[in-house]
Each structure stands twice: as C-alpha cells, then as structure tokens.
Design a protein that fits this description.
Layout: H1 8-13, H2 18-27, E1 31-38, E2 44-55, E3 61-70, H3 72-118, H4 126-150, E4 158-160, H5 162-176, E5 181-187, E6 194-196, H6 198-214, E7 220-229, E8 246-253, H7 260-265, H8 283-293, E9 297-303, E10 307-315, E11 336-341, H9 345-355, E12 360-365, H10 368-378, E13 382-388, H11 396-406, E14 412-416, H12 424-431, E15 436-439, H13 444-456
Parallel strand pairs: 5-7, 11-12, 11-13, 13-14, 14-15
Antiparallel strand pairs: 1-2, 2-3, 4-6, 7-8, 8-10, 9-10
Length: 457
C-alpha cells in the first residue's frame, strides 16, 4: 500500500509519533481506526487498522500484532449506495410534491373549464380563462412527467411511438440541460411502433442525456436520433426481432469520449468515473436493465475528443392500441346521488360545480370519518362514492374498507394526484372491488365519463 513500512503510524495518526500510536494501543488494549492515508503512488486511500499488543507469560509487551486493510473501494461502494438511497428519497419527495401540485391544479383547471363553458369568443372573461386553462394544462402535463420519472412501478407496456416519447422528454431536458449545450433532434418520419413502457423509455432518454451533459462541461451538442434498421444490424445473443427489424434510438454528444477500458465497465452497477458526490454509478446500469427488459439491446461507439454515441435497438411491433373516441357533451349527463370524500375544500366544491349542471346531486364530506357517517345514513340513495386516496387521520384504504363493510356492493371511484401505477394503494383497492380511478387534475368530461361507467357496471 505504501511502498515501505517505516513511519506507518505517523502516516495514519498524522501529528502523533509512532510511540504515541503504540502507547494508545497499549492503553486501550488494542487500536482500531479508519482513516485517510497516502498510498505509494501518491493517491488518497482509506485504510482500516487494528493493532493489538502481544505479551509473554509474565505480562511483558513483546510486540504488536494486527492487520491493515485497504477499504477504499468498499467505502466508495457504501457512499454510492447511500447516495442512491438519497436519490430514491428525493424521487419520493418529488412525487409527493407533484401530488400536492396536482391537487392545486385540479381546482385551477376545473374552474377555468367551467368559466370557458359559460363564455364565448369575444366575451371579456373568455381570453383570461383560456390563458389560465392552457397554463394549468401545461402544469398538469409537467406534473405527470415528474410522477413518471420519480415513481417506482411495474412495467406497463403498450404500442408506442418512439418519436412521441422523445418529444415529451425534450420538455424536461430543456430545463436540466444548460444553455451552452445545443439540443438537436433528427426523428425519422413514419417510424414503426415498439411495445414498451413509455415512462421507462423516457427515463432511458433522460439518463443518457444527463450523462452527455456531464461529458460536455464547456458546452457542445446533444443529438437525439431515431431510425429503423433491418435484422442484419447484428443483434447479440438471443435477441430476436423477426423480419420487421429494429427501431434505433441514438443519443450522441460531442464530449471528451470514453476510453476502451472504461467502455468495458460502463454498464456495471455502481461503476462511475465521476467525482465522489457527483454520481451513483447507477444511471447506465438502469438504462441497460430497462432496454434488456424490453427485449432490446444497447451498444456504444466513442472516440477520444470526438464524443460518444449510445445506440439502442428495440423490436418493432405490429400491435396498435385503440384509442377511445371521446363522447359528445350529451353522453356525459346523468342523474343520481354522488358522495365526494376529499379533504381539499376546493376539489370538493369543484366536483359539485362540475357535476350538478350535468344532472347529478352531490354530497360533500371533508374527511373519511364524515364520509363514512354520511354513507351509513344514506347508503340506499348514494349511487357512487368518489374518494380521495390520501387524507389525514383516515386514508383512502381505511375508508374504502369501512364503506365495503357497510355495503359490500358500494361503487367507489378512487381519486388521487398520483396515477394508478404510481401509487400502490390504488391498484390494490381496484383488485378489492373499487370500480375505477381518476387522476387529478381531471376535466368535467373525465369525471363524468368515469361516473357513467361506474353506474353502468
């Protein structure tokens, strides 16, 4: 480790002399410490030292025994794990903030929609309401993107257009990529679909783009491209794409490049070339895992001082998802008594103001306990219960079970600022008999359609 043994205690203890080090080991019947030291190449290392005094039959000190271990890599691994846990905590915090943000946007977007329905082009309130509505819609889309990035969920695949995923990712990238880096796209038109989880593919794009950003501290160009390639592209191992070939997604930078030794380790978990505190070594490992789970593969090409290009290949799918055709305004009218349980007063009032003009009668409950009491008294008249999932004192799961105990056939619509896949409680209650879920912020059409579907079920 040091190239010599002389002055070892001086190296480890610093200002203390070797005899002081030995006296400390004597006084404490052993010396145990972890400290920074300078290795034989002049590099900083972290060592673990244990030193024990040896005695003869008369109790006299005859020498010292112990061990010295270089624990630099072990400590760095621990630090990366801690940072990874911190990043997970930040993701959870971001998800919680996005949830609260969606609660606020529900009232803003909903009432802007109501004002728009009461005005026409040229009315003094029509333009301001339009601006508020459009701004709230953009805010809602941004909140969904934050939830998409921060949530932990099972993979939900569907037929997706990779170009659309790239375009949606650009909004987030432009907020995290500095202005001295030019973001360029070259998206081939008419590209076939692939079967994938859109949120995970978006995470892949963002992880690669952030890596590219870090490789260009003085600025440069980030290029994102899509194309279609044939099966002759040369998929490794047991990757099969059939005759349709692959969709190719490329993310390139004009940074310093990656040497060949590093390229062999770059997808390993916890491997990083970044300084301590600036990287977990998990970004590219996660990218590799996601692509592998999608039946695809990833490779890279890099040259010193010329930059790096990551190429991702995903199998083409011929499956298409049929989008629901929106109903016209007459389809969303209805009748019946609706109980809304939500601790947010603005959301409760919005539900009433949205639904009563459509023909429904609405009861409001500000907490789970109040909602349960109302339902117990009026269960025979209440057609549907709309219930928020996250409420103080009594959460959605507890309220749902209480309602089910009172009336096993109760129709409950779950409502949350989280998506169904982003909050485990929603998926679980749907399995237990909840009739559906609505994500905040919602439009009048969305909530009314969910109610009609619940009533017809």
């Amino acid at each position: 480790m040091f190239g010599e043994v002389a002055g070892l205690c001086d190296i480890l203890i610093g200002e203390k002399t070797a005899p002081d080090c030995l006296r400390k080991a004597l006084a404490e019947k052993g010396l145990h410490l972890e400290d920074m030291a300078i290795g034989k190449k002049g590099d900083e290392i972290i060592i673990s030292l244990s030193l024990y005094p040896e005695t003869d039959s008369s109790g006299n000190i005859t020498g010292f025994d112990g061990y010295l271990i270089n624990i630099t890599e072990k400590k760095r691994m621990e630090e990366r794990l801690i940072r990874a846990q911190k990043m997970e905590a930040v993701g959870t915090l971001a998800g919680g903030m996005a949830h609260d943000f969606n609660n606020l946007l529900t009232a803003i977007l909903g009432y802007a929609e109501i004002i728009l329905s009461m005005t026409q082009e040229g009315d003094p309130f029509h333009k301001p309401a339009t601006i508020i509505h459009d701004a709230a819609k953009r805010g809602a889309d941004f909140g969904k993107k934050i939830l998409t990035i921060s949530r932990k969920e099972k993979m939900e695949t569907k037929s997706v257009d990779i170009n659309e995923i790239v375009k949606n990712s650009l909004e987030l990238l432009r907020r995290s990529i500095p202005k001295n880096i030019e973001i360029v796209t070259n998206l081939k038109e008419g590209i076939p679909h692939t079967k994938a989880d859109p949120s995970q593919l978006q995470q892949v794009i963002i992880n690669l783009a952030v890596n590219a950003r870090d490789a260009m501290p003085d600025g440069g160009r980030l290029l994102i491209e899509t194309a279609t390639v044939g099966i002759e592209n040369g998929a490794p191992g047991n990757i099969h794409a059939g005759k349709s070939g692959f969709i190719k997604l490329s993310v390139s930078d004009t940074g310093a490049g990656i040497d060949r030794v590093t390229q062999r380790k770059i997808f390993d978990p916890f491997f990083t070339t970044k300084e301590i505190g600036k990287g977990t070594g998990l970004g590219l490992y996660i990218v590799h895992s996601i692509i592998n789970n999608h039946g695809g593969y990833i490779n890279l090409y890099s040259e010193a001082l010329k930059g790096t290009q990551f190429n991702i290949y995903l199998p083409v799918t011929k499956e298409t998802d049929i989008e629901e055709v929106p109903h016209d305004t007459r389809d969303i009218t209805g009748s019946g008594l609706i109980l809304v349980i939500d601790d947010e007063p603005d959301v409760r009032e919005l539900c009433r103001d949205m639904l009563e003009p459509l023909g429904y009668t609405v009861l409001l409950a500000e907490s789970g306990s109040v909602g349960i009491n109302i339902f117990r008294q009026m269960q025979d008249k209440i057609a549907v219960v709309i219930m928020d999932m996250i409420m103080p004192k009594m959460g959605g799961t507890e309220v749902f079970r209480a309602l089910k105990t009172i009336a096993p056939k109760v129709k409950v619509l779950l409502c949350s600022g989280y998506s169904q896949n982003g909050f485990a409680g929603i998926d679980e209650l749907l399995k237990q008999g909840a009739i559906g879920s609505i994500q905040k912020p919602f439009s009048r059409r969305e909530i009314a359609t969910a109610i009609k579907k619940a009533l017809s079920g």
